[in-house]
Amino acid sequence: MRNGGWLSNLFGLGPRLHVAHDAGTGPAVVLIHGIASSSVTFERLVPLIAGRHRVVAIDLLGFGESPAPPDAQYTIEEHVTALAQAIRRLHIRGRFVLVGHSMGALIAARYAATRPRALSRLVLVSPPIYVAQSELSAARERATQGLYFRAYEYLRANKEFTIRAAATLARFAPIKNLLDVSERNWRAFVLSLEKSVETQTTVSDLTAVRVPIDLVWGSLDVFLAPSGIRIVSKLRGVTAHRVDAGDHVIRPRMARVIATAIDSAS
Fold first, then answer.
1. Cβ of 103: how many Cβ atoms within 10 Å?
2. In whole angstroms, what is the distance from residue 125 CA to residue 135 CA?
3. What distance lies between CA 127 and its chain's CA centroid?
4. Is-contact 91 81, C-beta < 8 A?
5. pLDDT at position 90, please?
6. What are the residues facing 28 on neighbouring strands?
7. How many whole angstroms separate alpha carbon 169 and alpha carbon 223?
8. Terminus of the chain with fewer CB atoms < 10 Å: N or C?
């Protein structure tokens, strides 16, 4: 980033996150997508809530049409700071529902923990929640979680393979442009994976949240660690919604569950 670098963005002087959608009236709902994606993540959800809410969808730092500052480190703190700056510019009146998908759920959890008066409800969709292996009593759970981290390390270390594999998967995705790992966002992808997904304090963040939390995930989601879902499901204030035959993508059935959770905040 020119003219002051990443710090200038923190003070509102740099490029702004792209607001991909802002329409409708009523209680506000802010949607934030996950890693290697964009606001198209919510293509199936928006029509279900548009008639009753002001719906806002924001592209995260480094993804979609948002800027990718060359000196950003893509820590969860930076993602949350950029998100908070974008939300302030929206001039939302009253409390709003924050919905995060995948990595966006981790960012949403930190936002909710650090800004307790902003939200009326927090909805976490398909969150890749990992905990310290020392907190997992079962050897099988420790081994399973270890597999995720080894897979992430391989993806980060093998750029050509990862970009090629992502392009192949994108061709079969039910939503156009749902998955994007490219030269443009490679640095954002790698650093976000390492510093916002692999290194996370989501369970701790959620214990500090003081609004109702809905946890939505698909029974066939291969990206989720069962131990993390189990732990969060038992936290105070959390309502768990398991979508049978659902995967990591927000398909129509999962979208309906999310819409119901959003409406329950009204």
1. 26
2. 23
3. 7
4. no
5. 95
6. 54
7. 14
8. C
Tell me the chain's radius of gyration from C-alpha atoms.
17
Q: Which mean pLDDT values do the consecutive 10-residue runs of the chain (266 residues) have?
A: 43 74 96 98 98 97 96 96 95 96 98 95 96 72 86 97 97 95 97 96 95 98 92 95 97 98 87
C-alpha–C-alpha distance, residues 206 and 106, integer Å = 9
d(CA 60, CA 43): 16
- Between CA 109 and CA 111 the distance in angstroms is 5
19-23 and 54-58: which strand pairing?
antiparallel
Question: First and final CA of the chain: distance in angstroms?
Answer: 40
pTM: 0.93
Residue bearing tokens 């607001």: 19
How many other C-beta atoms lie within 10 A of the C-beta of residue 217? 28
- pLDDT of res. 6: 47
Placement of tokens 């992430």 in the chain: 152
The residue assigned the tokens 């189990």 is 230
What's the burial of 6, exposed, middle or buried (CB within 10 Å: 0-12/13-18/19+)?
middle
Residue 251 pLDDT: 98
Sheet holding 96-101, edge to edge: 19-23, 54-58, 28-32, 96-101, 119-125, 213-218, 238-243
Query: Residue 187 corresponds to which tokens in the numbers above?
Result: 């640095």
Stated length of the chain = 266
Are the beta carbons of 92 and 183 closer than 8 angstroms?
A: no
